[in-house]
């Protein structure tokens, strides 16, 4: 009964939740995680599936996944934002929160909660681009005002500085 309750709670969250054992095999995942994993890596996962074997066709992505999970398996709880995806066109940004799973003092696995933050990261990148463009335009305008390129005003055949 407690497994049913845990799965129900995990599925209500809206975030992707998963846990692995020390050999990188899934011990838990919610429906959101399963669906996203299948969409990204074209693989249907089950309890016991190797996280790393499923990503064997994408060695760089597999190595990134191994590194971030290993930190949690080493006892570190932390949060990072990363890009994942099988191709540049399919890259997504995720906030990943990792923590070790302990049985007393022994680390027996790791868990993470993932939030898709692609829309927020892209909006922030766009905002930064607009700020850079605005700063550039302000500098150009100030340069004009301060005489670095003040336009000449032509009045009935004579030239005067504005």
What would your notes on this structure say?
The protein has helices at residues 2-12, 31-41, 51-54, 59-73, 118-145, and strands spanning 16-21, 26-29, 78-84, 92-103, 106-116, 152-155, 158-161. The strands form 2 sheets. It has a 5-stranded antiparallel sheet, sandwiched between helices. Strands 6-7 form a two-stranded antiparallel ribbon. The longest helix is centred in the last third of the chain and has 28 residues, at 118-145. A hairpin with a 7-residue loop joins strand 3 and strand 4 (92-103). With 162 residues, it is an alpha+beta fold. The mean pLDDT is 85. The chain is elongated and about 90 Å long. The protein is built from 5 helices and 7 strands. Helices cover 43% and strands 30% of the residues.
């Amino acid at each position: 009964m407690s497994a049913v309750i845990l799965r129900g709670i995990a599925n209500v969250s809206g975030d992707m939740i998963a846990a692995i054992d020390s050999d990188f095999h899934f011990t838990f995942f919610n429906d959101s995680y399963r669906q996203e994993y299948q969409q990204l890596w074209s693989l249907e996962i089950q309890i016991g599936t190797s996280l790393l074997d499923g990503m064997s066709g994408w060695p760089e992505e597999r190595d990134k996944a191994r590194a971030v999970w290993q930190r949690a398996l080493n006892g570190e709880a932390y949060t990072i934002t990363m890009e994942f995806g099988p191709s540049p066109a399919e890259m997504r940004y995720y906030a990943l929160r990792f923590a070790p799973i302990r049985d007393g003092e022994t680390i027996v696995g790791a868990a993470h909660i993932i939030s898709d933050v692609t829309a927020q990261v892209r909006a922030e990148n766009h905002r930064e681009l607009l700020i850079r463009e605005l700063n550039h335009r302000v500098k150009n305008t100030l340069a004009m005002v301060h005489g670095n390129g003040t336009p000449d005003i032509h009045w009935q055949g004579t030239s005067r500085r504005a």
